[in-house]
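Our preliminary data section would be incomplete without showing what the modeling component actually yields. Below, a chain of 172 amino acids is followed by its predicted structure, encoded as tokens that our downstream tools consume directly.
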Amino acid sequence: MEFGDRTGAKSRGRKTIRRGGFTMFEFILALSLLTIVGLMAVPSFQRSALNGNLKSMAEALASDISNLRNTSMAENRMHRISLDIFSCRYTLQRCTTSGSVCPGYATLLVKDLSSNSNDLCFDPGGTQVNEFYIQPWGLVSPGVVVLVNARGSMATLQVNAAGRTRVRINLR
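Predicted structure:
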């Protein structure tokens, strides 16, 4: 005589009781599949992080140019952004006197590109200026700055005389 249990399994002479859950084999199989998928995703996350650092630093430099331009007009004072291409940093500076003639500059802030990521720097071949001068009436000395990371991704900032900054990002 055969008996059926609630799972549909049939047994002879006695009831089989099957509890819900996973066997050890099923658990180890699922865990190993998740590990393999996770290991395949790690390079993609690293690439995203490097390119994210490039984007954020390019946006920060564009924002600094815009903010310094607004400050220059509000204070009726010249400002300057000096790029240290080989040390991967730039300096925000303010003229020591008001007006359009500046005998000297005082440092406001030094920003290091490698503070977010050690692989981010200016591209010496693509960067066309070492300094941006910002006049009290809002004019900016035009130029092009190129940032590059270890993956070869590039961010190009093109600044026109009106102080408008266009950022183009080429990711790899």
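The CA atoms of residues 9 and 95 lie 87 Å apart. The helical segments are 24-75. Preliminary results of this kind motivate Aim 1 of the renewal.
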